[in-house]
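Blinded run. Sample ID left blank on purpose so nobody reads anything into the name before looking at the predicted structure. Input follows.
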Amino acid sequence: MPIQLSRRNVPRLAARLAALRGKLTDAEGRLGRLYQAIENGVADANDPTLKDRIAAAKTERDIAQAAFDRAVGEMRPEARITADRIASFVATMRENVLSGDTAFRRAYLRAVSDKVKIDDREIRIYGRRGRPRTPRDGRRAVPAGVPSVRDWRARRDSNPRPLDS
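Blinded prediction complete.
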């Protein structure tokens, strides 16, 4: 929920932005010093401890950057969520899901569905009611596919075989 801008909130928001900018600068500085140590030959790039420290510094930098960007975004009046914006988003999503680009429709289905069951009369799509699936490692990869389960067999048995047997 965006913070309402008023005269009272401006000093508090400025202090928050300054603190977040400080965290971001600190993380970028540490990462830069680690890279400089590698470039100067002081540290070995293949050292597992150094690799862990670099990964930790990158993660801290990314978190600080995301928090700073979010705080800046909250201050912009155009970032506020309104009923008109929600209606526009819903209309756009409906249009894209019903008749949009195939790649978009496929990615959307992969993000919101856990299982697809197909039988001879209907197709059922199962998914969570909560948040859509997101990658756990921070990458923006699309899941490999929507798992499907075919419930039907022509002869209603679990072992398909030629009809003449």
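Unblinding after everyone has recorded impressions. Residues 9-79 form one domain.
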